[in-house]
Amino acid sequence: MPDLKPTQDLQNSLDKVASIYTEALAKPAADLLMTETGIITFVGGGIARVKGLPDAFSEEVLLFPGNVLGITLNLGVEEIGVILLGDDPKIKAGEVVRRTGHVADTPVGDALLGRVVDATGKVLDGGSQLNIHTRMPMEREAPAIMDRAPVKVPLQTGIKSIDALIPIGRGQRELIVGDRQTGKTSVAIDTIINQRGTEMICIYCAIGQRGTAVARVVETFREAKMLEQTIVVVTSGEDQPGLQYMTPYAATTMAEWFRDQGKPVLIVYDDLIRHARAYRELSLLLRRAPGREAFPGDIFYIHSRLLERSTQLSVALGGGSMTALPIIETQAEDISAYIPTNLVSITDGQIYLSPGLFRKGLLPAVDTGRSVSRVGGKAQLPAYREVAGDLRLSYSQFEELEAFARFASRLDDESQAAITRGKRVREVLKQAEHKPLTVIQQIAMLKAVNEGLFDQVELDQLAKTQQKIATALDTQMKPLATKVDAGKKLSDADWQSLMDFLIGVIKG
Ligand SMILES: Nc1ncnc2c1ncn2[C@@H]1O[C@H](COP(=O)(O)OP(=O)(O)OP(=O)(O)O)[C@@H](O)[C@H]1O
Fold this sequence. Notes:
Keywords: ATP synthesis, ATP-binding, Cell membrane, CF(1), Hydrogen ion transport, Hydrolase, Ion transport, Membrane, Nucleotide-binding, Translocase, Transport. By secondary structure, the chain is α/β, with parallel strands linked by helices.
C-alpha cells in the first residue's frame, strides 16, 4: 500500500490555499456597479429621444457619449425626451446613454464671487478652476409662506427716478420691461454698482446674449470695483437651448446659498424673453402641444417657479433676502404680449422704459405713468419718503398740464409756475449711466427742486448745480447722511440745516 499521507510541502500549500479562500470569504463581497442604459433614437436641435430607460425620473441627469449631460424633460411610456446641455458630434442615434440617478446640480459657495461661469459651473473667464465641492440642485422649492417676512428694507438703486417714484425693497421682484435699446440692462447694472460697499451679493445672469455684450458688462463691474461682490452666470446665444433654459435656475441656486446664510442677494435675469424662447424651441422639438404664440402650456409655470424663489426670509431662517430684477424685452411697446403680461402678473411691479422718452434724451427713460412698485413703498427710508411723498402725483399733473399748455396761448401765473417747477423736476430726474447717487444726494436734489430752489436756475445749468451740491454734500453733511442711512426721521432742525446748505451752494 502506498503511503497516502501528504508530504509536508503539499500540506503547506493546501493550508495556504485554504487560508486564501477563508480570507476572501470573510471580506464583504464587492458591490456590483449597476447602471441602466438606454439607446438614443433621435438627436438634433439640442434635444434627444431615448428608449429603454423606464425608471428614469423627471429632471434626472443622463450621461451621453463624450460626457455630454442631458436632463430628462418628457417621460413617455416608450421613449423619454431629453434636453442636452452640451454639444458633441459623437452623439448619434444608436449610441448608449447612462442614467446617473441624480438631478442636475450646480456649484455653490464663496469661491464663485468675482467669477464668470456657466450653469454647470464651467469657468468662462479664463481663470483657475473653481475649488468648490458643494453642489446643490438647480431646481429647488421656493420657501413656504410662513418662512417669509414682509418687505421692509429698501434696496437703493442709486437712480433718482426709481428710488423716488418706484422704490424697491429687499425680497421684491421688480420687472424691468421695455423695447430693445431703451436702457434696461443699464438700469440693472447701475443697481448692482450701487451695492458696492454694502453686504449685498449680486448675481448677473445673462441668458442667450452675445459674448461681447457680456464682456462689456463684466468690464463695467470690474471698473466699478464691484466684481468681487458679483457672480456672472452666462449662456450665450450660440449655446444649446437646454443650457439657456437651465441657466436662470442654476443662478438662483447660487444666490440661494448666500440667502440661506442670512445675506441679502440681488439677482438680475437678462433677459427672460430669451429664456422663454429657448424653452419654446425645446418644447416644439419634444413635440409638446403649442399654445398661444407657439409657447407650451407650462410657460407661465417656468417663470413663476423661478421668481417665487426670491423673497425676504423670516428672522427664524436667518433673515436673508433675494431681490429679483427680471428683464423682459417687448416688441413695438406691446406690454400686453403673452410673456410680458405673464411676468407683470408674477412680479411685484414693473419699471417700464419708454422708447419715446429715450429718443427725447430723458434718460433713464423710466415712464412713471406705466411703472409701479407694489410693495417697495413701505420699504422707503423715512427721510426719503418725506421728500418723494407726492412727487409722483405732482409730476403726472405737470405732464398733463404741459400737454394742455401746448394748445393754450396764455397761461395763468399758477400754471406757469407749475410748468417751470415740473420742467426742473424732469431735469433733476435725468441721470447719466453708471453714476448712482447716495441717498443723501438724492434727498438733497429732490428737496431743492420741491422747495423751488432750482426755479431760478436755468435748465441747462441744473446738471452743473447738482454736481456742485453732490460734491459739497460729501464733505459738509456727513452726520445727516449717517442719520438718513440709519433709517431715522429727520427733525425740523435737520431739514433747516439741509435747506441752509442748499441755498449756500446754489448761491455760491
Ligand atoms: N442713463 C443713461 N444715460 C446715457 N446713456 C444711457 C443711459 N441708459 C442707457 N444708455 C445707453 O443706451 C443704450 C442702450 O442701453 P442698454 O444696452 O442698457 O439697453 P437695453 O434695453 O438693455 O438694450 P438691449 O435691447 O440691447 O438689451 C446703451 O448704449 C447705453 O449706453
